[in-house]
C-alpha cells in the first residue's frame, strides 16, 4: 500500500466533516505518515547466467537504503540486456530471462522485466531507466485520476479543477517513486571506458536517477569516483554500499566451470542449475557466440564520435 502524508490524504479523499472525524480517531486508524522517498532498484546486465550474487546486490542495496532512514525500497527489477548487445558468450535472451525468472521466484520484491531484451536492438541503459520511471509515472497518474470523492453519499470522479491538479502534483511529488540504477563496482568503473558510455547519458543517469553501487573484489569504486570529474560532481547521487561478506562469484566463472564439467551448485539457485542442465547451456560453442564482433555500445559510439 502506498503511504501518503496524512495531510494530503485528508485533502484528497475526505469531506471536511469526515476530516474532522478522522483527525479525532486514535493514531492506529490513521494512515501513517512516511516521509521516506520510495525507490525502485533497477539492475541491468547480461545475467549470463544469473548468480546468487546478483540477487544479493538487491538485498544489500535495500538494507543500506533503509538504514539511511530516507528511502523505502518498494521493488527491485532485473532487466537482462538484449541479444543485440553482442557480448562474447552471450546466450539467447529467452534463456537468460527464464533463468532470472526461476531465480527470483521466491522473492516477494524482486522481479524480472523483459521489456529491454525484447527490443529489436540494444538500447542505452538511460533509456531503460527512463522507461521504468515513465511506467511508474503512468501508474501514479492513473491511480490518482481514478480516485473518487464521496459527496452527499454519491461517488463521483475527481474534478479536473486547478485545485485538483495542484493537489495531484503535490501528492505526486510526495509519492512518485524514484528509479535508481543498481550495479557492481566494475560496472561503475565501466562508465569511464572510452566510447562505452556517452557523457550525456552518464550525466542523466546520475542527475535524474542516481546509482546504488555495491563494492566488488578487483574494483575500487571510491577511487574511481575521486578520479572522474563527472562522478565527483554528482557523488551525492551515488550510494556506495560496502559488501563485507566478499564473494567473487561471476557469471564468467560459472560459465567456465560449466565448460569444464565442474559443479556450480550453491553458486546459482538450484532451479537455475536444473535449467542449465536440461537445456544443455554453456559450452565451448556458446562461449564463441559473438566472437570477433564489436560490443554494440562501442560500435555505436565510435561510429558517432
Ligand atoms: N560479485 C559481484 N559483486 C558485485 N557486483 C556484482 C557481482 N556480480 C555481478 N555484479 C553486478 O551485477 C550486474 C550484472 O552483472 P553481469 O551480468 O555482468 O554479471 P557478472 O557476474 O559481472 O558477469 P560477467 O562475468 O559475465 O561479466 C553488474 O552491475 C555487476 O557489476
Ligand atoms: N552506453 C550505455 O548505456 C551502456 C554501455 C555499456 C553497457 N551498458 C549496459 O551495462 C550492462 C553491462 O552488462 P555486462 O557487465 O554484463 O556487460 C548492460 O545492461 C549494458 O546494456 C550500457
Ligand atoms: Zn559483468
UniProtKB/TrEMBL annotation:
GO CC annotations on file: nucleus
Asked whether the UniProt record includes Magnesium among its keywords, one would answer: yes
**Segments for region (Disordered):** 138-166
Name its pathway.
Cofactor biosynthesis; NAD(+) biosynthesis; NAD(+) from nicotinamide D-ribonucleotide: step 1/1; Cofactor biosynthesis; NAD(+) biosynthesis; deamido-NAD(+) from nicotinate D-ribonucleotide: step 1/1
List keywords of the entry alphabetically.
ATP-binding, Magnesium, NAD, Nucleotide-binding, Nucleotidyltransferase, Nucleus, Phosphoprotein, Pyridine nucleotide biosynthesis, Transferase, Zinc
Q: Which GO terms describe its molecular function?
A: ATP binding; nicotinamide-nucleotide adenylyltransferase activity; nicotinate-nucleotide adenylyltransferase activity
Needed cofactors, names only, are: Zn(2+); Mg(2+)
Q: Name one GO biological process term.
A: NAD+ biosynthetic process
Pfam families attached here?
A: CTP_transf_like
**Reactions it catalyzes:** nicotinate beta-D-ribonucleotide + ATP + H(+) = deamido-NAD(+) + diphosphate; beta-nicotinamide D-ribonucleotide + ATP + H(+) = diphosphate + NAD(+)
Q: Which domain of life is it from?
A: Eukaryota
Localization annotation: Nucleus
Major subcellular site: nucleus
Using the record's annotation, list all stretches that form the Cytidyltransferase-like domain. 42-256
EC nos: 2.7.7.1, 2.7.7.18
Query: Which regions are flagged for Basic residues bias?
Result: 149-158
Q: InterPro entries in the record, alphabetically? A: Cyt_trans-like, Euk_NMN_adenylyltrnsfrase, NadD/NMNAT, NMNAT_euk, Rossmann-like_a/b/a_fold
What NCBIfam families has UniProt attached to this entry?
nicotinate (nicotinamide) nucleotide adenylyltransferase (TIGR00482)
Which protein family is named in the record? Belongs to the eukaryotic NMN adenylyltransferase family.
Q: Tell me the PANTHER family matching this sequence.
A: NICOTINAMIDE MONONUCLEOTIDE ADENYLYLTRANSFERASE, NICOTINAMIDE_NICOTINIC ACID MONONUCLEOTIDE ADENYLYLTRANSFERASE 1
The annotated subunit structure for this chain is: Homohexamer. Interacts with ADPRT/PARP1.
What name is this protein filed under? Nicotinamide-nucleotide adenylyltransferase
